Protein 1
Amino acid sequence: MKVGIIGLGYWGPNLVRNFASHPEVDLVYGCDLSDDRLALIKSRFPATELLKDYNELLKKDVDIIAIATPVDTHFKFAKMALDTGKHIWVEKPFTATSQEAQDLIELAEKKNLRIFVDHTFIYTGAVQKMRELVDSGEIGEIKYFDSVRVNLGLFQHDVNVIWDLAPHDLSIMNYLMPNSKVVAVAANGIANYYDHENVAHLSVYFEDNCFAHFHVNWTSPVKIRRMLVGGDKKMLVFDDMENFEKVKVYDAGVEMSSKEKIHEALVQYRMGDMHSPKVKSTEALSLGAAEFISAIHGNRDPLTCGKDGFDVVKILEASEKSIKNKGRLIEINQLEVV
Ligand SMILES: NC(=O)c1ccc[n+]([C@@H]2O[C@H](COP(=O)([O-])OP(=O)(O)OC[C@H]3O[C@@H](n4cnc5c(N)ncnc54)[C@H](O)[C@@H]3O)[C@@H](O)[C@H]2O)c1
């Protein structure tokens, strides 16, 4: 296979490295407007063929176009790539609007091409382990998500911190609860430095009795990457800053003897054992690249497809509307994607 990568900034070189090391990929093209980025890729990956103009890349005989440019350019590049018959890999967040996401999904379907949305965390050993624990019934019904993803930098020029960081958490949430429907979103935040919020809080409400909260921040002095998943049987903690024990399973919970007579109710707290299951450490991007190539061969959607990208973008869009309206609750209409 031949792969062309547009955007060789912070993230693009990781795509170059992972596609170049896949046994079925015999040529990687890289494309960027910046001479410095092209020179850096040439020095690190000398076998990569480099181009400055994406129109030239689209004329090449490539199977996959991977897009790692700023979010507001994803749609343009993705549409052009599909129009010229290429499968597309698009970085998170998939698109800048849900309408764009829907248009790309429809176009790919019409042309029988595949879309991979890079929700990288889905391919990590930790998230795979969490899904396994949820599917086995060990965690019980999920009642809440509570997540913190904060650090100092990197500011994005075109989107706020929710669009930049929350796609990771939202994609994990959707993956762990594939059958739960998000019905409304509320978000608050502050833009201290320029047009886009650098600190934000996002609340997500579900059709059933579940709630999720995400705290994202580009201006935190410490780096925290921690997610709590509360089940009615057990609870999970995913701490991505841990080197070894990334996932911990707590046999902890709360039981009420009577919900009706709350003043007389006996609240029982259960605090049992904690264990940390072994999680695989293979690099997520290499598994993502392998999954996409396998999906193309199998003429099937990859594990993180256009519809998954669309679902995340719907929440991001609603969060933006909410922030602009000082945290008002925004309902998500369940637009179905064909
Ligand atoms: N999956 C992940 O974990 C992850 C991590 C970081 C970033 N990302 C995503 O990757 C994308 C890029 O983010 P980044 O941090 O690398 O941004 P960046 O600004 O560091 O890099 C973007 C690159 O695109 C290039 N570019 C812009 N317009 C171009 C054009 N018309 N033709 C060719 N090149 C062009 C720029 O010159 C720049 O080098 C974003 O969508 C971001 O959300 C994903």
Protein 2
Amino acid sequence: MAREVKPETALDRFVATIRDWYAEEPDPEKRWECLTPVMQELLADPSVLEASKNWPLTNGGGPRNPDGRVENLLFYQDPDYGFALQGVKKAADRSDRRGIHDHGRIYTLYGLLDGHEKVERFERIDDGSKEDYAAIRQTVEMAVGPGDVDVVKPYEIHTEVTVGEAAVALILRSEPSGSSTQHRYNMETGEYQASQGPRLVPVDMFGK
Ligand SMILES: [Fe+2]
């Protein structure tokens, strides 16, 4: 009996290339600086944009779940190197800011697949001596559109802001969300707290 052979997808090619980088470049700092073009190739593949129409909205289209946690779609987690390809799909009427945060020790590439958003970056301006307190100031405000990739290194403080448009993003992380303690920041009050990071919702990228 003939065995069905599944055709190679854009995700298969992406994963193979990322795995090659892990095998060839042991220094994470150097490796993560080289991965942007690989992410851009995935974002530019028309099959991915088409497939995204079938993905569920994260948080049912709202900013958060009742328990206060945000969601990420989970498309792939590598069994050997631990990296994960995640995503978010936000509705047009979701006019919220995700909240200012860092990703703990995780390296991240945030790549926009569809729609437009604003990326904001911040830096810490206190000495870290006061518990549960962090003073920050904004350093960057950047409009991003399809194909743009933001490289977020460990502990870098940032947020993505919706601008009244539906938006879909793919997020490559050195470890899946939830594996490292993240932090949330409040620029007005200086409140600084540990958080678990997004909850993961497994999705078949090319499923119906
Ligand atoms: Fe983030």
